[in-house]
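Lab intake sheet, docking and co-folding queue.

SAMPLE TYPE: protein with bound small molecule
LIGAND NAME: S-adenosylmethionine
LIGAND FORMAT: SMILES
REQUESTED OUTPUT: full 3D complex as structure tokens
PRIORITY: normal
SUBMITTED BY: R.K., bench team

The fields below were copied directly from the construct record.
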Amino acid sequence: MTSYEIIGSIALFNKKISKKEAQELIRKNKHIKTVAYKSDIHKGKYRLKKVIIILGDKNKITIHKENKVQLKVDIEKTYFSPRTSSERLRILNQIKPREDILVLFSGIGVLPIEIAKNTRAKSIIGIELNPTAHKLAQENLILNKTNNVTLYRGDVRRIVPKLKLKFDRILMPLPKSAEDFLDLTKIVIKKNTIIHFYTFAQEKEFKDLSKKLKSHFKKFKILKIVKCGNYAPFTYRICIDFKVL
Ligand SMILES: C[S@@+](CC[C@H](N)C(=O)[O-])C[C@H]1O[C@@H](n2cnc3c(N)ncnc32)[C@H](O)[C@@H]1O
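RESULT FIELD (auto-filled):
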């Protein structure tokens, strides 16, 4: 069967399947109420894709549970991928008590909320451009009763300079263009800030990845390069964990 991901009560396929196959899936999995497919790839500055419902409830909004949080997701008007939940867990496991954390490109709030609920971080700030994602993120704060997350709606280029804060850890989960925002982090880093920088790369490019960082940071140490998904044949979504020295 074509591959699919489950987001809340929605089974979301990578390509169209028949009504009969959709019926079979709903019959076998009582928690699936809607079967849909993505009719294109993630596009535009909000990283969205068109979703077409094949069978079941005509609903593109659902509540998804992962890493001990509940998230209201609009599968068409916001970016969210359950496939990266283990990568989120990898980040959560590194966070130390009392850290101040900045999540750029925070979407529906998945990372800020999972950090708040699963770690002893002191404060978390999230910034997101897409108004629908920001609205859902605010609802998700209430749904999860968090009290140490602050969310801003807007372009990181406009918001970050206004923060006037320094962070222990910065997350940049926008692999398509996070590189264009590396310069921005320089105003909110301090010695030993850890940055989780996402990008797309082929394996043969891994050895040159430090060049991307060298043009922005005088001294840094790459802690780890992690493959955290496939983007295209031979091209991975990767995370470079590095420390500013
Ligand atoms: C790949 S999604 C990641 C969302 C979420 N952090 C997650 O992991 O599911 C990237 C997000 O960055 C947002 N974004 C893109 N450019 C931005 C900018 N200049 N300022 C703030 N947010 C931006 C998009 O709207 C999108 O929600």
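REVIEWER NOTE: Residues 45-47, 79-80, 105-107, 110-111, 127-130, 133, 155-156, 173-174 surround S-adenosylmethionine (CB under 6 Å).
SIGN-OFF: pending second check by T.M.
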